[in-house]
Design brief:
This protein is of the alpha+beta class and about 140 residues long. Helix content is about 20%, strand content about 35%. The protein has a single domain, classed as Gamma-glutamyl cyclotransferase-like (Hypothetical upf0131 protein ytfp, Roll), CATH 3.10.490.10. The protein has a 5-stranded mixed sheet with strand order 2-5-1-7-6. The longest helix is centred in the C-terminal third of the chain and has 13 residues.
Amino acid sequence: MSNMVASASHVRVAVVGAHLTGMPLNFQLTHRKAVRVEQTTTAASYKLYALANTTPPKPGLVRTDGGSAITVELWDIPLARFGEFVAEIPAPLGIGSLQLADGRTVKGFICEPWAINDATDVTHFGGWRNYLSHLASLKNA
């Protein structure tokens, strides 16, 4: 498969948080035979929030003016398994269309705007993994 587009038998999905490689929900991709394609960034029009009261901790990605580029991983999920993957996604998260820094549009995790009311803006970390590393460094200090 080309890095630019998924084959007709797969859906390319951008993941931004708990589904990243090595994170707690990554198994939801790997046990469906999804394949990691690349790490890249969104267009500079998104904000990333640490959502309140989520287990495991999850981010919410919201498209907005004054946003930044956020690190994401692109995964190709077999089309036959995509529906069951999406069915496991809890509110306020969902799958929508994301713009990448290189101009591509892919499916990816998005967040309903109401959920950011009690969330923490972590956009300045540039990605979920960087934010979690920051939290870990505070605990170890």
